[in-house]
Amino acid sequence: MTANPLRTSLALLFFALSGVLGTETISCKGDEGGAVDWFIFYKLPKKLDVNSTESGLEYLYLDSTMRSWRKSHHLINSSDSALGRTLGQLYEAYTSKRNDTGYLIYNDGVPKSKNYSRKYGHTKGLLVWNRIQGFWLIHSVPGFPPIPEDGYGYPSSGRRNGQSGICITFQYSQYEVIDSQLLVSQPRIYSCSIPNTFHWELIHMPQLCQKSSASKIPGRHLAILQSAQGLNFLHFAKSSSYTDDIFAAWMAQQLKAHLLAETWQWKTHELPSNCSLSYHVYNIKHLKTPYFNSYSDHSKWCLSTLGSINRWTCIGDLNRDPHQVFRGGGFICTKNRYIYQSFYRLIDSYEPCG
């Protein structure tokens, strides 16, 4: 009997897709536990007032279903927080040992380690994905998250200062772009699992995971990304060979906008506001709601001034610090108006040039 070519093709397609169709959808998880396209957290600094009842674990929260910040009713060290719920998918992937899910965790400050090496990028993040989609969490918290076998936790060292981060859900088609951006930023990977099924499309992450990458690292690269629900992003990635202030020399000029930058203003380690180029960068000095200054804020973000035609918000992992111009890292930027308005309302004052 002669086989029916159409039936044979359909059968082969069914078997090829059977693993994908049975795969759970991975995404950022919101404060209430549901899947969201993106969310942003802003962990508030711990007040040094002995009478304060705050623990240093409270955080502001914003996601794709909202228009402005709200203070989360969870603490950031809780597994019911947005971070805890999102990272629950990492622990599920780790324990199940499924060959259809990959993850990669990086931080220049490795949990439970005092071995701090400047040869890596000043980068902090986490990716979990399958062939449908996944999420990318970019944040500012040293020593976070714990290795998967330890389960969810938040480091005590992350309580004192403010911290920030963004989680974005991406379809798998975006991961080839992310793969190249990670090569540029030179992350210090301390836990990863990338099954062979991904090695056809993802070239650099498996090599970085095995610490065997021989690829030439570009000085910098700008990439266009789109979230699973269609929000557009620009991702700026620099390596250690690009030795200039990413804010003033590249981002502001590329975005064609004056920027207000909030980074850790550690005394004697901050770059001053810069008005020497066409588009300026001003250091934010104080924030409100609640009131605190940049010396107690380890967050890394910037946004364009109200006078700019393009209103951008960027979140990342580099400070305006003379030493960090020699480090890899990056920022992810969007023109989402609710993100912009929410961050702009936090600003109390900034430093003029000169």
From TrEMBL:
GO terms for cellular component: lysosome. It comes from the Eukaryota. Residues 1-22 form the signal peptide. GO terms for molecular function: deoxyribonuclease II activity. InterPro entries: DNase_II. Its main location: other. It catalyses: Endonucleolytic cleavage to nucleoside 3'-phosphates and 3'-phosphooligonucleotide end-products. The keyword Signal applies. The keyword Signal applies. Its EC number is 3.1.22.1. It is found in: Lysosome. One of its GO terms (biological process) is apoptotic DNA fragmentation. Keywords: Endonuclease, Glycoprotein, Hydrolase, Lysosome, Nuclease, Signal. Belongs to the DNase II family. PANTHER family: DEOXYRIBONUCLEASE II, DEOXYRIBONUCLEASE-2-BETA. Hydrolyzes DNA under acidic conditions. Does not require divalent cations for activity. Participates in the degradation of nuclear DNA during lens cell differentiation. This is Deoxyribonuclease-2-beta. It comes from Phodopus roborovskii.
